[in-house]
Amino acid sequence: MEAVRSWLASAGVPEDRIRQSQGLSWLLFNASVGEAESIFRTKYHSWTHEESGKIHVACDEYSLPANIQKHVDFVYPSVHFDTRPVPRSANHNLKSRDARDVRGPYRGWLPKAVQAINQSDLSFQLADCDQQTTPLCLRALYGIPINNEITEGNSFGVAEFTPQAYVPYDLDIFFSNFSRRLLGQRPIFQPINGAINQIRNKSCLFNCESNLDLSYAMTLVYPQQVTLYQVGDLLGGASFNNFLDAFDASYCEGDDPFADAIYPDPTPGGYKGRSCGIYEPAKVTSISYAYNEHDLTPAYEQRQCNEYLKLGLMGTSFLVSSGDNGVAGNYNTCIDADNRLPGPDATYTDGSNGVFNPMFPASCPYVTAVGATEVKVGTDIARALANNRQPERTLATVAHSGGGFSNVFDLPAYQAQTVKDWFKTHPPTYDDSLYNSSQNTRGYPDISANGANYVFSLGAEWDLTYGTSASAPVLGSILTLINQERLKAGKSSIGFINPAAYAHPGVFNDITTGSNGGCGTKGWGAVPGWDPATGLGTPNYAKMLELWMSLP
After folding, report:
1. What is the pTM of this model?
2. From the candidates 82, 209, 260, 324, which is the catalytic residue?
């Protein structure tokens, strides 16, 4: 800081025009365009976005003295053109957002292929879990007990990004059939950056994710309440960084104005406040959204990943869906082999070919990436479990369990031997150009749970849906119940679970069939032990509880 301050002073910027950000990670100073051009040896210009009319100030290049470069990550405004301007009028149609607007991960990540069913066709039998997944099926598959108590200090959070929103009467329709104790119950609403639970726009685009997440999370842990972190106002949207800001005020100061929504929002009708460090993080937090890892810069992702590390050390378990397109990314896209430059200018194929496209934050080594399975067609799970037969396979119907290897993050120590053993025992046959074959990067998912044929209510009608969007809240519910038992015993919450999970793979139900295709390939196959299709397997509540109750 002192070196940069001294350099600015020598360049003619007086001390009273320089200030340090609250988070201590930025030096901010006011300067005229002429001064800035002189300091950074550049020429600034302004550009006007054709559709939104938004003016953007930037330069083509800039310079820093050699002794200053090592202290500065980047200068803003300067060469960054990765903004995704959207229309910002008060009458903005939410459906018109750019599909690759990185400030809102809600697009391209919704539950897949909603299929309508009749009320009379709803099943409450375990024999039908291959056709309809209900709370009854999940309790049987993973041994989830019915909860009857609330433990002080326990908490379970679900993150949703505006304009995704739940519809209250859809929750009650679900509860009236699968958990009558919950009729009239609602999640604890924690708005971030002016968020509201908008129900003006009603369709799967706006309600599928929230309705699905909350219906199952609330049912599986009741009477423990679920906290809804609703992120972003209707105009500005939100990113994962905007979400994390609400837990850590200092983290606010490092937000990227091009990848994160800006609050206070200067546009007419935008939220004029900013949610920084206003909430306590839940003991377990489920996130059913993601970006392509390739959409963002490695520096941006590393900074965010470190924040998950800090929150994990504080006792929060972050669970993130691993993706619904196998080895492909959002919208079933693959990285263009001829342009592998990550960030806002990344180019993608239509998914029929190209380089495998890993997901973020699933690829961050400090979250638990959750893949998906499905009950094998024609399988009565009660009979299968009674005969010690695995009733599930890798999810590959409609959606495909996301998995693969990061292009950004190193192989974490807790996973190193497991991944190396997988490469040795099941050497990939794909050309090295298709994926990161170094054997030195993070592999995911870590754990899976059922992600097929989920029954839920949408617009007062019954539907079936697919995806890892469903599996993350299910695992979150299980960890919340384990935290309950630990807290009752005077222990802390389990926090970041991956090191213990990889050290004790026997507490999971191993999935050994199916694969997660994509990018014109069959993807990765499920095999005995960990694999980049289903991870370590699916939860076994009794074994997981025994493990974590045995730990300090």
Report:
1. 0.83
2. 209
